[in-house]
User: Which sequence fits this backbone?
């Protein structure tokens, strides 16, 4: 299979009818960049920075983080690189950060909530990112945003750290795009309001599905409810894409759905700009998109959006893609 897709390493990410998209990779460590590039990634759509904080005994210093971010940016050679700020809490714990026990960790003090609560940790990361910003094409996004207020607070802390650095005579890139993940239903529902204040949106379907269907993404007993093609999810994804575009912003997806063979044609038809996935899915997706007509898929999309269940959508797509024969 690998050989079959080799031709797509240097190919453009474009549909059969000439619609261009960006196919990016998700990474957790600077070393992962190599694999994204070897698989022809157009960029990094999600750098899960929490991995820099895990498997160690203390917080990573500003300098350690600076080196990690700089390494990624330099190796990406000016290709767009979206770094997500710390997304800890929920299922991901740190041994040196003693957080109080919570009844519902996934609904608790995690991600941007934790960063706004423990601002010293957040500011250290923001400084490291800003210092690294001159080495490549950095974009920063905040995870788990549920309210406009959180997004504004996170942006203003970033602004404060930027001003401090400039006052210290340290260079910072001027054109850093600041975006957010849309992975909480409240954010998806007011994506139009966020799109006015964010430079881009990135849909995190792993959490968006879990929160929309109220089904723990790790719990096998309710995995039957974890439905990427539930009409509620398709409607939310469409809302977010339309809201971003209505405000002249680009929109990506960095959840597993972005690399799913059945989802890709639907996302293409919806107008998703950037698909970010594990490196190993990039070439298959580029090959798939090269054979799809966005216009044709837009007609199928009209049908798909009338379906009432996830199963109907999946059956329709499987037939269309000639799967299961
Ligand atoms: C998501 O929630 O879709 C996502 C990309 O983030 P993570 O899987 O790290 O929660
Ligand atoms: Mg998430």
Assistant:
């Amino acid at each position: 299979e690998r050989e079959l897709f080799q031709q797509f390493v240097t190919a453009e990410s474009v549909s059969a009818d000439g619609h261009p998209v960006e196919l990016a990779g998700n990474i957790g460590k600077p070393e992962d960049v190599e694999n994204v590039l070897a698989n022809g990634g157009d960029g990094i759509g999600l750098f899960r920075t929490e991995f820099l904080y895990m498997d160690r005994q203390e917080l990573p210093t500003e300098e350690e983080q600076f080196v990690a971010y700089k390494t990624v940016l330099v190796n990406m050679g000016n290709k767009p690189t979206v770094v997500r700020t710390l997304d800890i809490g929920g299922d991901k714990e740190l041994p040196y950060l003693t957080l109080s026990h919570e009844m519902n960790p996934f609904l608790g003090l995690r991600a941007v909530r934790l960063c706004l609560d423990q601002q010293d940790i957040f500011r250290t990361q923001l400084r490291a990112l800003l210092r690294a910003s001159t080495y490549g094409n950095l974009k920063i996004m905040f995870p788990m945003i549920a309210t406009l207020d959180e997004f504004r607070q996170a942006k203003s802390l970033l602004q404060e750290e930027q001003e401090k650095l400039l006052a210290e005579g340290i260079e910072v890139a001027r054109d850093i795009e600041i975006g957010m993940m849309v992975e909480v239903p409240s954010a998806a529902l007011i994506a139009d309001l966020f799109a006015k204040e964010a430079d881009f949106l990135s849909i995190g379907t792993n959490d968006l599905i879990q929160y929309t269907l109220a089904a723990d993404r790790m719990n096998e007993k309710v995995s039957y409810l974890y439905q990427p093609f539930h009409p509620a999810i398709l409607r939310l994804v469409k809302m977010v894409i339309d809201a971003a575009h209505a405000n002249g912003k680009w929109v990506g997806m960095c959840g597993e759905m972005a690399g799913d063979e059945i989802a890709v044609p639907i996302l293409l038809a919806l107008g998703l700009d950037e698909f970010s996935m594990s490196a190993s899915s990039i070439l298959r997706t580029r090959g798939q998109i090269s054979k799809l007509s966005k216009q044709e898929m837009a007609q199928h999309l009209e049908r798909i959006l009338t379906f009432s269940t996830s199963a109907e959508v999946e059956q329709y797509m499987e037939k269309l893609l000639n799967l299961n024969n």
Summary: The two ends are 18 Å apart (CA to CA). The mean pLDDT is 96.
